[in-house]
Amino acid sequence: MEKQILIVDDDHLITKSLQKLLKKEGLSATIAANGEQAVELVKNQDFDLIVSDIKMPGMNGIETLKKIRELRNNAGKQPIPEVLITGFVEEASLKNALELKVAGFIYKPFSTDEFIGAVKKNLT
Fold first, then answer.
1. Most Cβ neighbours (<10 Å): which of 12, 13, 75, 122?
2. Smallest Cα–Cα separation from 30: which of 46, 111, 79, 77?
3. Three-state SS for 4?
4. How high is the mean pLDDT in each 10-residue block of the chain (124 residues)?
């Protein structure tokens, strides 16, 4: 069965580029333009990995992951591995992300090899 990856980022160019890159690797990616949309997608679909930007308007990446974890826990489902993408190393955000114990971090700008490596390493 094909692995399903959820990409959460408010930058349309980034999400489309990452989706195409994953497709070349034989992986399927669904795009969420914001945290709220990501939460709705997770309610109705199972994913093998979530790749999310931290800094987004509205619900940021950390809040999004917390909400998704809560939803899955309440439904008795296993957690989904998460990789956070960030272009800003703000101490508070980094501390919050580390407290979440996410599977991985990718710092912008990143190479395609770095991205694919992080994805493949963390797929369940």
1. 122
2. 46
3. strand
4. 92 95 95 98 96 93 96 95 82 74 87 94 85
